[in-house]
Amino acid sequence: MPLPGKARARREEMLVQLRELFLTEGFSSFNIGDLAERLRCSRTTLYAVAPSKEQIVVAVVRSFFKTAAERIEARVAASADPARRLAIYLEAVAAELQPASAMFFADVADFGPANDVYQENTQYAARRVQALVTEGVRAGALRPVHASFVGAAAAEVMGAIQRGTIQATTGLDAAEAYRQLADLVMTSLTDPKERTREGGR
Fold first, then answer.
1. Domain that holds residue 78
2. Stretch (H or E) spanning 3
């Protein structure tokens, strides 16, 4: 049964506040009492988000990725250039992950249901990369490559970023790692002559 308008608006407000807190400090160290104190609200208000702390965490993590995906797709839709659309997508993913702390990513990795949400979004991102590569190749804006392979390779890197392997190996946080992935993908798929012309403009 849908929530009444006022209750729905209050729930969305709580999700925003919880997202900001979790992105900055993670969530494993908080219990419901801690969250109520930090957000200056009642436990009842928190339980309107979800009926347990674990479900609140999943709701917040899902909300974070849903909101991020909407903003990313809006940026992609604003460009008609097939090559730029791929670059915009990868750059926008990096920008959306920028506010997330290492503690947030560590907590997500350690909590199965939240990690499942992250994995779902990583898989979706890989499919979007594949689709955008296909679009760019068909338009002649990108070199002819095996789009499924590029999507699969991107998914492997995204998974390594999520698991913390990339940061452990390179010292790059998730946002910067995605920026490097964007640079790698675009450099490999764009004709060097086109890059030279773009750089000279």
1. 57-200
2. none
Is 176 part of a structural domain of the chain? yes
Cα(2)–Cα(98) distance, integer angstroms = 33
**107-118, pLDDT tens digit by residue?**
998 999 999 999
User: In this structure, how many other beta carbons lie within 10 angstroms of the beta carbon of residue 177?
Assistant: 23
Classify residue 4: in a domain, yes or no: no
CB atoms within 10 A of CB 56: 23
Give pTM, 2 decimals: 0.84
Structure tokens at 102: 């290492």
Instruction: Give 56-92 pLDDT, tens digit per residue.
Output: 999 999 999 999 999 999 999 999 998 889 989 988 9
Q: What is the mean pLDDT of residues 121-145?
A: 88
* Structure token digits, residue 13: 């407000």
Question: In 26-111, which residue ranges form alpha helices assigned H by DSSP?
Answer: 32-39, 43-47, 53-77, 82-97, 102-110
